[in-house]
Amino acid sequence: MENTSLKTQLGDNIARLRVEAGITQCSFALMVGVSRQYLIDIENGRANPTVDMLERIAGGLDTPVGKLFQGV
Which residues does UniProt call coiled coil (predicted)? Predict the structure, then answer.
């Protein structure tokens, strides 16, 4: 593993999957029931999302939770 933290890699995956799905941060934050700032913090590796939050994010992206950790 590189010097990149698990939270940073997870956030990068979430951001990439969101962008690939064509969803803006604002729209996605509304979809999963969080503030846009909290979503930004997750995507930038500054937040420590709960398992429940990861399930909501994965559901919003219509992907399994495990895919959020792909390559981590």
Answer: none
